[in-house]
């Protein structure tokens, strides 16, 4: 467990949080057990919650909380969503299967549109129109996470009940639950009924959903013991599919961001389901990826070859930073790991800092450069001790719609792609 350090003494964070609750200094928030989150650090969450209960409130935290609750209030009137709400069943005929269309493939000029042609980085609007699961799973990811965090920090029951309803509808209720597989993700019309790389639809966002469920499990109103066990079992089954299916094995072996995300996702789900040995195995596997796919100067060649090279360089780093957080919980230090030529996660962050801060122009292909995509990655690296990242703080353009990092301190995908 984490600790909070102060001059002259060190106090376990659970004791400190309990003391503040006992003294009545935490206002407007529930007293709950520590969440067994897989990416977010429980100590950091508890510290932020404690400081929100003090007067005067830290202005940075107050601003973040205002943004968080504003987003949560909007989600209260939306959803829930389900894979069963789509008009047509996916290939195979089971409406409970998740399905999506490869976003960068476009119909050719032939009468039937076949074959579909790849245009890397250019998203085909047809994909979401024909296969809405891709869009609705993002709504489910974002809403359940924001609503849960809003409940954690404010104690307002309506946030927890809405988050629980969203998760229960997508994962648990027999009539609407998703089957725990991605057999029909990112299919290409005329070519196949799904591809292993479709697992990327799920990889990053789902670990935030798992963290949301872990927070709800600390005593959220409406999230019952039955819900907790049913969601745990869904994850057990999904982890089996990730490990045994050919899709799962192929995605794990991918040499670009797909493989990084596949390993990160499996590590997070393993930790959530208390399969610590598998989580450790996946965390240690990431060392070989750092050595193989990050160069000595911090570049990621597989991502630099893309038409959206800055986006994919930062996107891959989200997975690296998130599994570093997971690994820490099972005794593996990925932040401190260096490959034979000094390759490291921090080094990869250093590589993107000059472009993200405007100190140098990004000199690789990029259809739509957006420095803000690097914001969370730089802060995660700074939190882990990177002096270069600490100096870069505040130099990346501000995020639109409110910055929640101080209340959910982990790198998140800050754009709609992929």
From TrEMBL:
Domain Alginate lyase: start-end pairs: 82-362
Keyword field: Lyase, Signal
Signal peptide range in chain numbering: 1-28
MF GO annotations: lyase activity
A Pfam family that the UniProt record links to this protein: Alginate_lyase
GO cellular component terms given for this protein: periplasmic space
Protein name per the record: Alginate lyase-domain-containing protein
Species of origin: Mycena belliarum
